[in-house]
Design brief:
The structure is a homodimer.
Chain A (H helix, E strand, L loop, with lengths): L20 E2 L2 H7 L9 E5 L5 E8 L15 E5 L5 H6 L11 H11 L4 E8 L9 E18 L6 E9 L3 H12 L1
Chain A binds a DNA duplex (10 and 10 nucleotides) through α1 and β3.
Subcellular location (chains A, B): Chromosome, Centromere; Nucleus
Keywords (chains A, B): Nucleus, Signal
Main location (chains A, B): nucleus
Chain lengths: ~180, ~180
DNA sequence: TAGACGTAGA
DNA sequence: TCTACGTCTA
């Protein structure tokens, strides 16, 4: 039955470098970058029953303002649930996003200043003959802030999370792990 | 993007023996048993624009009478589309199945006496601690007949296909390939 | 049991 | 573009 062994951990993953490329979401699970096969926000429970985010995958399927941005130093990531892009396109009745699950986890990671791994999907649009895509590990980020937005098209609330790359993330991660083993 | 290389061929697959086990649908694609990642009926076009079936996967998600049968010598396989089991459970408005796509392919394979590979999913229900499952390659079959049924629960038509194991399938396949290379 | 930023083929 | 006997986590 279950053929995929997933791992949950906060911070750097041994053997994985910033810029490493993957071609299938399952690979992200196998190497330990992102524990969820399909969901955008990976989570891990804390000892006191709260929840933190381990990683996000920005596949561009939700409305993340920076999905097609050239720079990855700052990411504006849309919360999960009630997918506004598909929902509006398919004329579904959307509800407000809630601060639960992955969205709550990202907020907690901000409050507790936990690092979050960021993986972005890039489309090979530069080469017209290549309709494929790849996932690239962008490194460790901090959740700098979050806010609610009302979308003009759906009239519903979505959460947005601003993530900022940690320039010193390798060093930070090493020290963080020493403290938290 | 596309990470899975699928193969389409009728008949035996080199290196694969009856009874071989697999634990994930993608494996069936990779080894060449079943070209479709998700669909139950694998197809291949003929030179004159018709379509044949290469293989079926009986995962027990449709209503195949023999899904939980002990013997695999005869299979009664439910046609694809308008899934009656899920549809009725979710109270969806179902339509009649149509003789297109994989259903048409299975009919053509019957008319032209083409062999069809059969893969069945088995649940590990004997061991209460193991909630997993596996796919087992059952060998080559012939489509012996097909018919339409009206389901009592949905009131809609489904196609049923009776497949019978070819006892001489290894020999048959060898001879068939000589003729058809 | 339902839902999820999945994948591939028709 | 849409559907499909998927597959995992919550």
């Amino acid at each position: 039955g279950k053929w995929l062994n997933t791992t949950k951990q906060i911070g750097c993953v041994a053997g994985i470098e910033v810029g490493d490329e993957f071609h299938w979401r399952g690979e992200l699970c196998i190497v330990g970058l992102h524990n969820d096969f399909q969901r955008g926000i990976g989570c891990i429970p804390s000892l006191d029953g709260r929840i933190w985010a381990t990683s996000i995958v920005d596949s561009g399927r939700y409305d993340s303002a920076t999905t097609n941005s050239a720079s990855s130093d700052e990411i504006t990531y849309c919360g999960e649930g009630e997918n506004p892009v598909f929902g509006v396109k398919k004329k579904k009745k959307l509800k407000d996003q809630k601060l639960v699950g992955g969205n709550l986890a990202l907020m907690n990671s901000m409050v507790d200043r936990k690092p979050v791994r960021v993986i972005r999907r890039y489309n090979h649009s530069r080469n017209a003959n290549d309709s494929g895509y790849k996932f690239i590990y962008e490194g460790l980020y901090r959740v700098a802030k979050y806010w609610k937005e009302i979308r003009a098209d759906s009239g519903t609330c979505v959460y947005k999370f601003k993530l900022v790359r940690m320039e010193d993330h390798q060093q930070y991660d090493s020290e963080w792990k020493k403290k938290n083993v």
